[in-house]
């Protein structure tokens, strides 16, 4: 079955460009478009897309709030959100990730990268590389906890090994690099990451990295 994609951007020309790129792929179908966040919510309910390609800065309702509503507890479907941004370190990107986005992509990314991002997110993975998450969180460290706050109770549900894995995910290490660091197999690492996500109620390793910083488990500059 084709991946159902909803395009959300207040610039019709950009939406047309994205549509042309995506519809050239046999496994992707653009099922609708929206020019602002409110329209996006209506279209998600009506069309039930798999992936929403979401601009951040739009009239009426911005992409952050739309993402929060699409992926939140009262969501109307299983749509996953891939955020579009003009700048590499847009100040709203961290907020979008916190709101439930599965990653972000630059608007001027190559066509092949856009297509691959759609496929990755549709498969339930995080498009955003952990190293980029680290870069974003370091840049906006002033908005994050100082590390002196009380550790969330949810963190205590993790085993010692799972806490180690979470710290390494937040540092930007891939599964292969974590396996090498801990002297275990990649399969074991994947299992630990899965347990971490399940226990903390997170949807992917992007949110896991954000959680690690926000809980004070990892602080900008840690190695």
Automatic annotation (TrEMBL):
Residues 151-216 form the HTH luxR-type domain. Pfam families: GerE, Response_reg. Keywords: DNA-binding, Phosphoprotein, Transcription, Transcription regulation. SUPFAM superfamilies: C-terminal effector domain of the bipartite response regulators (SSF46894), CheY-like (SSF52172). Residues 4-122 form the Response regulatory domain. Transmembrane segments: none annotated. This is Response regulator transcription factor. It comes from Streptomyces glaucosporus. The lineage of its organism: Bacteria, Bacillati, Actinomycetota, Actinomycetes, Kitasatosporales.
């Amino acid at each position: 079955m084709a991946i159902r994609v909803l395009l959300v951007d207040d610039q019709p020309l950009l939406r047309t460009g994205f549509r042309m790129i995506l519809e050239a792929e046999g496994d992707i179908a653009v099922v609708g478009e929206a020019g602002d966040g409110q329209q996006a919510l209506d279209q998600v309910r009506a069309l039930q897309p798999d992936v929403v390609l979401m601009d951040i800065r739009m009239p009426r309702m911005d992409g952050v709030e739309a993402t929060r509503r699409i992926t939140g507890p009262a969501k109307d479907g299983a749509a996953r959100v891939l955020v579009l941004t003009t700048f590499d370190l847009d100040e709203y990107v961290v907020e979008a990730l916190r709101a439930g986005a599965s990653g972000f992509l630059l608007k001027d990314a190559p066509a092949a990268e856009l297509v691959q991002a759609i496929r990755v997110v549709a498969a339930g993975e995080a498009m955003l590389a952990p190293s980029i998450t680290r870069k974003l969180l370091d840049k906006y460290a002033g908005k994050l906890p100082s590390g002196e706050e009380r550790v969330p109770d949810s963190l205590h549900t993790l085993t010692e090994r799972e806490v180690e894995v979470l710290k390494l995910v937040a540092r930007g290490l891939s599964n292969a690099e974590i396996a090498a660091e801990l002297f275990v197999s990649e399969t074991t690492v994947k299992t630990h990451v899965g347990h971490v996500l399940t226990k903390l109620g997170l949807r992917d390793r992007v949110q896991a990295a954000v959680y690690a910083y926000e809980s004070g488990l990892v602080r900008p500059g840690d190695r």
